[in-house]
Specification:
425 residues; alpha+beta; four-stranded antiparallel β-sheet; 9 helices; 6 strands
Length: 425
């Protein structure tokens, strides 16, 4: 019992430490893995942390400012009265001064500047977050291309296996005839040569599959089984086109909101400000008593008002710049929507073209298969040569390859179109 428990623990640790390669993978799973693994997309958490720190900084800016300062100076002359002034005053100020002090400043009213800065930072954070989502979504095409490419390679490999099996069957029949002396050795050799050619093509396709799977592993960070089944969506005849649901649409709106927050910041910067201030320390001579040459403590407190009135033209110019930028973003949005809608006609035309090609391919492949079947009987009966059969075998293989190629292209066309419209978001 102890040995069995120990074995289960070892097995559990092995599974946890060395996860098994995935034997199946869907597009959605690949998207999620890619977005969590791709380096630039990992900066999403950094954007949040930066935004959090900026908010903390703005909140700290609302606290009073306390400064420890000191001033010391020496001068060539100071205030004095002529000896014949006749005034009963004796002013004897030193040529030096020294004043250490604490100064406290607090913005009693900042014109809403801090609140406007908070709104501006929030808007900028939302734009940056959505920009990462836009970049993430745009990279999905790389996953689409790998899925479609691997599916095409595998379909071609399956077709080669069918042709190889057919040639092997024909060769065995001819080898039997060769042993009986009714078939020349060269006829058998021609089939062997073609088998080797197909085998070389099959190996090349396997290398292509392995390379594409390795790229998919690198992009997603997943370990994939060499025989992994990729779940590629089947083609569906769309009765109506899906609504556009791209993150760029939200990005345009957020960018315009960001401009509005900048306008609020501009207005706050041009409002009046009220500030409390206090200063306390000591100095020699006394900073507040003109006639005291001793080191003396002092204190000052008050309130200040500031309103810059000479920059109305600058404010108007800044607003015009923001308005023009808003118009620029609006044009970009309209261009984006226009390009999305203009792709509809191209998609429908491409689908109709591929549908027609597939129907022709199916008929051609059927006829080529019938002809090949007839020639197989003629080859076995010695009516035709191996060369004649190989010509038809190659034609039949090309017909089936064209059929599979156009089927995959039809799936790719719809997948790319739905991705462009954001239907798989």
């Amino acid at each position: 019992m102890k040995h069995a428990f120990l074995a289960l623990c070892i097995l559990f640790c092995h599974v946890q430490l060395f996860p098994q390669a995935r034997k199946s993978l869907s597009l959605e799973e690949a998207y999620e893995a890619f977005e969590s693994h791709y380096p630039i997309l990992g900066s999403d958490s950094l954007v949040d942390r930066i935004y959090k720190k900026e908010l903390e900084k703005l909140k700290l800016d609302r606290r009073p400012d306390l400064f420890l300062q000191a001033e010391a100076r020496i001068q060539t002359e100071t205030v004095s009265l002529p000896e014949d002034s006749g005034l009963p005053l004796n002013i004897d100020l030193p040529l030096y001064s020294f004043k250490p002090f604490l100064e406290l400043n607090y913005a009693l009213y900042d014109g809403g500047l801090n609140s406007a800065q908070l709104e501006e930072k929030k808007a900028a954070w939302e734009v940056e977050k959505k920009s990462l989502e836009v970049e993430s979504y745009g990279l999905r095409k790389r996953i689409n291309q790998l899925f479609v490419g691997i599916a095409l390679y595998k379909a071609q490999a399956d077709l080669l296996q069918i042709s190889q099996a057919d040639l092997l069957e024909r060769r065995k029949v001819l080898e039997a005839g060769q042993q009986s002396g009714v078939v020349l050795e060269s006829e058998v050799s021609k089939l062997k040569v073609r088998e080797l050619e197909l085998e070389a093509q099959a190996k090349s396709l396997q290398f292509s599959i392995q390379g594409s799977l390795q790229t998919l592993e690198d992009l997603t960070g997943l370990e994939l089984d060499p025989e992994v089944e990729l779940d590629l969506p089947l083609y569906q005849n769309l009765s109506s086109l899906p609504q556009i649901n791209r993150p760029e649409q939200e990005l345009f709106l957020l960018q315009q909101n960001s401009l509005m927050s900048k306008e609020g910041l501009l207005e706050a910067q041009h409002r009046p400000r009220i500030q409390l201030f206090a200063q306390g320390g000591g100095g020699v001579p006394n900073p507040l008593n003109f006639f005291d040459n001793n080191f003396s403590p002092y204190g000052i407190a008050g309130i200040s008002f500031q309103w810059k009135l000479s920059d109305k033209k600058q404010l108007r110019n800044d607003r015009e710049i923001l308005f023009l930028r808003s118009q620029q973003i609006q044009k970009q949005k309209e261009t984006f929507d226009f390009n999305m809608e203009s792709a509809n006609a191209n998609y429908r035309s491409r689908v109709e073209n591929l549908d027609a090609q597939i129907q022709q391919d199916q008929e051609i492949a059927r006829l080529q298969a019938d002809i090949l079947s007839q020639l197989a009987t003629q080859l076995e009966n010695g009516i035709i040569t191996s060369a004649d059969y190989l010509i038809q075998s190659n034609a039949e293989l090309r017909a089936r390859q064209n059929l599979e190629l156009h089927k995959i292209q039809l799936i790719q066309a719809q997948l790319d179109f739905l991705t462009e419209r954001g239907a798989n978001r």
